[in-house]
Amino acid sequence: MRNQVTVGCSENVTSFLTELGFRADTEFLNKGYLYRKGRVKIVLSKLCKMKEPGRPEEQNLIPLTKSHFVEVSVTVLTGTEDPGKLSEVCFRNFLRS
Q1: Distance CA 35, CA 72 (A)
Q2: Closest CA to 73 of 33, 38, 48
Q3: Which end of the chain is more exposed for a tag (fewer CB within 10 A), N or C?
Q4: 69 to each of 1, 15, 43, 59, 66, how far by Cα in Å?
Q5: ∠7-57-60 over CA atoms, to 5°?
């Protein structure tokens, strides 16, 4: 189990990170589908590199691999007694229906 914090950001986040001393190395796009059912979230996507940064058009994308990336996650409340067991129950119920 790991904690995750999701935050919104404005369009100038790249300028902000540059000011902090970071530099952009590669710009990529995670292109795919997001499925939700109850607490379960599944992301099925392909990772693509952009030939020209800032242009996410289809002809500007180069797939980094022929494989798909699959991410499955379950949201549990902080302080849950046994988050691992709760996650297992959620996945089992998801697969049954």
Answers
A1: 10
A2: 38
A3: C
A4: 20, 29, 8, 21, 10
A5: 110
Average pLDDT over residues 8-16: 83
Check: CB of residue 39 under 8 Å from CB of residue 91: no
Q: Is 88 helix (H, G, I), strand (E, B) or coil?
A: helix
pLDDT in tens, 44-94: 999 888 888 777 888 888 888 889 888 888 777 777 667 677 667 767 776
The token duo for 13 is: 């986040």
Report whether 39 contacts 22 (CB < 8 A). Answer: no
Phi, psi of 90 (to 5 degrees): -60, -45
30 with 9: CB under 8 angstroms? Answer: no
16-30 pLDDT per residue, tens:
888 999 987 777 888
The answer to whether 90 and 38 are in contact (CB under 8 A) is: yes
